[in-house]
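Exercise 4. Each item below gives a protein and its sequence. For each, produce the structure-token representation.

Item: HTH-type transcriptional regulator (Frankia alni).
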Amino acid sequence: MDAIAGLLDGPRARGAFLLRLTMSPPWSMRIQDEAPLAIVAIVRGHAWVVPDDRPAVRLGAGDVIVIRGPEPYRVADDPATPTQIVIHPGQVCTTPSGERLDLAMKLGSRAWGNSPDGAAELVTGVYQLRTEVSRRLLTALPALAVVRAGDWDSPLVDLLAREIGRDDPGQEIVLDRLLDLLVVAVVRTWFARAEGAAPAWWRANDDPVVGPALRLVHHTPQHPWTVAELAAACGASRAAFARRFTDLVGEPPIAYLTGWRLALAADLLREPDASVGSVARRVGYGSPFALSTAFRRHFGVSPREHRAR
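Answer:
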């Protein structure tokens, strides 16, 4: 869980958006918000997820689907129901002709829909920012990853549905963490059930030698790790550790460490008060020059050019 949580989360500024939907038929929403990752959980009733270029998927109560963007799709009571609502980037909501619907369908705090007691109740979460850290997770997921109610035993959907309407102090933080937990649990369950689908770094996380090394790298990238030090921390010889890590992860330890540091650096540079020097220290580079050189080699632009974009 440590690895996938880190890959999903990165710096906290990944822009999560959470909403409870209650809908009465007929209803159909076209989602074209270009978000890199979304999750839909069915609390009661049913819904169909209808991509433009693949078969529709029916979801019942307790089912959860993770949707990898940015391609558009529809969520509806039936695949044949024409689009009535369009969700644009920034969660702007309109009719197909462009009339704004944001206020007309607002039902309360984080609640939205065409009926407060609709036959279908959904909880949907959207991660709106694509980061270099999360890209490692996104590239490992299919366009649609479905976990059925019978595939797992988790209270998270019901807990999130109960918490989403509350406005207690600190509620945004509670919901933010619950959304992260739900995505982690769903993706973990999906990888466990989809044989051969999990990426190498995911499978390696369970290895008694390589797994601890990955956690050390993820949690303390600022440390000046060497292969010998990682091997000693994991109770293996340098040669055996390097060979095992490369075989399981698909790249040598230092190459993986470098990629992780630079992915973190790219995301940390989004923060408005971050300097190249402060980011260099946080990800394990001894100077801004050292980070800039590695960053340009990896991404083709300097850290300052990346931030300006």
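Check: The longest strand covers residues 16-23.
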